[in-house]
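Morning run. Coffee first, then this:
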Amino acid sequence: MPGLDRKVLLRDSTLREGLDTPGVAFTTEEKMKIAELLDKARVQEIEIVAPSSVIEDLAFAVMLREKRLKIRTSGLIYAYKTDCGKEIEKAGMSLDRFDLLMPVSERRTPKNRDEKVQLLLDALADAKGFQADVGVGFPHSTQTDVEFLLEISKEALRKGAQRVTVYDTNGSADPFEIYNLITRLRKGLGGSLCFHGHNDLGLAVANSLAAAYAGADVLDVTINGLGDRAGNASLEQVVLALYLKRIDTGVILQDVKLLSRAVEAASGVIVPKLAPVVGEYSFCHKSPSHLEIPGLFEAFDPALVGAGRSSTRL
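And here it is:
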């Protein structure tokens, strides 16, 4: 589909958020293979540093940099930690970019809004002078009022943040809420805007699409939708859904099934047979008559992802 209408960057978080999946622990070799496959598939950014283990995770970032892949490395740092300055310094020398996180819910420390803003601005000041791009991220963005989210975002952008990431941390939002939220932020903010969705209600992909339609230019995804609790937005589903709506992610469609299978093997989390795009039954028709006009029964041609269709009477 040449001449797609606009572009959206995908940040794959399989090697960060995906490791919050119960029972999942990748070896260094598995991490490297996944990173190389993502690079081959032309995913542009990979999140590999968790805010709870910054120094430890940066060791892999250094190893990945030595591979000289095209994919950009990214990580997260809590802006309210007393030792975040040390983490910022090391991340600034090891990553292509990182985000400073500040939970915007008043139920999480620091609970005072003015203190949240000040600590974030202090961390941004510490981040100046490094080659890495710096953004900000706001966990619980859908659990606070939009005026405060706008206020803290504007202050961060004014102090040099290059990207704002909003998190539907508990996965409670629906696509209409996300569309309205991103529309409001897009009108009120400059800079790059990213959405991070959780799948607690099965809406992470739909919410991510709503964010893209409303103007978000970056989406967080994971391969096979791995992640905390019910997981995150599935890379393979988001890529295909955006492609069909003429939004280009740059990802090679033929590679999504390979990515899915590699992460399935490394994680031990089995891809359901009914999984969209990469599931065994995705293009399996019980009624042979469907094959006479398959375009009426399939969202897209399976050849786009290197698959074929079949008829079965299981």
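The radius of gyration is 20 Å. Good start to the day.
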